[in-house]
Design a protein that fits this description.
Length: 337
């Protein structure tokens, strides 16, 4: 059903305004089913953990629902979906929401860790096995996943894929799923599934990869905005409403929107990874502190003279008791200093 996107004449949508874009909706059954399934599974996992007395961060739930599932709904059923068959720029924004925004929200919800924690041990083991399989490791390898995302965007716009999807409903839905899956290949391993990444992909390397990925994500928008040939030009020329601007200008607006959203998404992606890095450093520091505390030994007190109270025991630091190169170097430095 379309809300306030009233028609000027039979078969023609009214010119989009901010109000019409916000209040216009249409039902997309496959997308709605996907949102319901993901939401129910996630809610079941959170409820199962809480019944066992294990907390699950509300911020992760909010990110999964509002950014992840909300991004899916906005891309497939909002005013963008109402106008995507008559204007190019809403379709471009749809695709970038599915490719970048929704995957980021889903990853911030950490659904893989939730699944492993909520499922029975056997099922959780199978999930781990799938996520660490050779196929998944190959697809989530940093340069491979980036190439998949870039190749997906370029394939959508510079092959008959997009134009055909405008004609064929089931292919349009498949394109939605294709874009969402490609985006998840990049975001999910970096934020929630480190086991799928190679050992050299440390937090500093991941920060660099996210920065480079932000640059790569802007490439399709630049190409779309500057491309000399109209994308799905025959379709949009035929279906252009009387109020629409020049079709070429519409494509340039769509390319600019793709660039802007790609760069905006790169910042929270990087901040989320830096927060993860900070927490990992805190955890490592805590482990090191516990190890150093455990290595402090109690030196035996010297024998006391008759009639005198025994001397208190002295706690000696680890470098005075351990026999290794590091401890010896510290002893020399303290002796010479």
């Amino acid at each position: 059903m379309v809300g306030h996107a009233v028609t000027e004449s039979a078969g023609q949508l009214a010119e989009p305004t901010a109000g019409r874009l916000l209040s216009s909706w249409q039902l997309d059954v496959p997308a709605l089913l996907l949102v319901i399934v993901l939401g129910v599974l996630y809610g079941w996992g959170v409820a199962r953990l809480r019944r066992r007395g294990e907390p699950w961060p509300p911020a992760r739930v909010a990110a999964f629902v509002l950014i992840g599932l909300g991004g899916l709904v906005a891309a497939t059923m909002s005013g963008l979906a109402v106008y995507d068959h008559v204007l190019f720029w809403p379709a471009a924004v749809q695709n970038i929401l599915l490719d970048l925004v929704a995957p980021l929200g889903l990853a911030l919800g950490d659904p893989l860790r939730l699944a492993v924690g909520a499922l029975p041990k056997a099922a959780a083991g199978r999930v781990r096995g799938v996520m660490t399989s050779r196929v998944v490791r190959t697809l989530t390898f940093p340069f491979v996943s980036t190439a998949v995302v870039l190749g997906t965007e370029l394939t959508v716009y510079f092959t008959p894929y997009f134009a055909t999807a405008l004609h064929v409903g089931w292919l349009h839905e498949l394109m939605y799923l294709h874009l969402l899956a490609a985006g998840c290949l990049v975001v999910v391993p970096v934020l929630t599934h480190e086991e799928a990444l190679p050992s050299w992909c440390t937090h500093p390397v991941r920060a660099l990869l996210i920065f480079l990925d932000g640059i790569v994500d802007a490439v399709p928008g630049v190409v779309v905005m500057t491309h000399g040939t109209l994308i799905a030009g025959a379709w949009y020329l035929h279906h252009a409403p009387s109020w629409s601007s020049d079709v070429r200008y519409d494509q340039q607006v769509g390319g600019g929107a793709m660039i802007g959203i790609a760069e905006l998404v790169a910042l929270p992606f990087l901040l989320a990874m830096l927060h993860q890095w900070y927490r990992a450093e805190q955890a490592q520091t805590a482990v090191l502190d516990r190890r150093l505390d455990a290595e402090l030994t109690v030196a035996p007190a010297p024998p006391a003279d008759h009639g005198q109270a025994p001397a208190p025991e002295r706690v000696r630091p680890w470098w005075e008791t351990e026999q290794n190169e590091v401890a010896a170097r510290i002893r020399r430095q303290r002796r010479d200093g």
